[in-house]
Amino acid sequence: MGIFSPDTITDFVRRGDLDGVRQRLEYGDTVEERRSFQSTPLLEAARYNYVEIIELLLDHGADIEARNYSDFTALHQAIDLKKSEAAIALARRGACADEIGYLGRTPLQSAIKRDLPSVVTQLLACGANVAAPGRDGRTASDFIQTGPNQETFVTLLAMFSSMEKALAARYVDAIAVFLQRALVGGNPAEMLSLYQLVKPELLDESKGDLFGSYAHLARSYEVNMLAKVLQSGSATDLRALIEAVEDTEWVQNVTFESGSTPLYDVVCRGNLEQLEYLLVDCGVDPRVLKTDGKPAKDALNDSNVDDKMRWTVTQHIKKRTFSEAAAHILAKETAMVMELRQLLGQLTSVYDLRLLF
Questions:
Q1: CATH 1.25.40.20-classified regions of the chain
Q2: How far is CA 344 from the centre of its chain?
Q3: Can you list the residues of the chain whose pLDDT is less than 50?
Q4: Which of 336, 344, 341 is nearest to 318 (CA)?
Q5: C-alpha R_g of the chain
Q6: What pTM does this model have?
Q7: Domain 99-159 class, CATH top level
């Protein structure tokens, strides 16, 4: 195959030639090429259940929601042709499970109609809305048919329709979906209310083998809630969250996916009220580094930082430094005069003397 081959990327997709598809992309073929029935390479890969090619095309920017002449998206097409592996791969990569397409159905409705329990499970775990109506107003439950998977579908839809049922059944994937929806909604009061509902279950060590999965889910939700609350700017909501977690030291050890710490984020946003709560009430150390090695004080160099923010962080750094130096000296049986003089030079206020006397 050369650059002037009469075959295009779609031909190599249809043949399942992964290396050929990769080479056509290197030659500059468009990942959104349209061929017969306005089908794209991704739609063709879904048709033939070529999961590796699906992944490659998506990595190169293929439109996962592109439609062909028959109103199929790649996900609709994979489900209609019962290509479960392709459908699951597309769902995991973010294909919309509530998008109405072929025959006016959502992918979830079509997967139930086609009797594909593994696909239904994946779509629900990726956030498919059980109550989303099709073009005719019917919902997923209306497509359940008599057969060997009937009870499975009934149970799955029930688990993803009610947090209480998901908790009672200890269905981790369903619980995760409800928590994610609360985070997307972004209402701190609702996020916290849901957390208080699920916390006793998720952090109950008597759950045995499930405890590890539950605890990871709870901790992940706590960190994501914290990010949302810091973004909201409310010190009241921040206090409510820390009190609900019941561990003031927890916030000291949080690192977000960006590598940032809560204190660093607050300084960058210039939120003095949240800053003082973290430093004073939670005792967060202002010298703690981000994963890139930068402490919160580095953000103070930004010209947009308020003078009061800059002064507050600087004073708390000095207090921490003095406290640690004082503790080191007081732990000794004898202290050198020079050490005491150096320590006095680090005083931030007369109140620091209480550590010594």
A1: 1-95, 99-159
A2: 47
A3: 1-4, 349-357
A4: 344
A5: 28
A6: 0.76
A7: mainly alpha
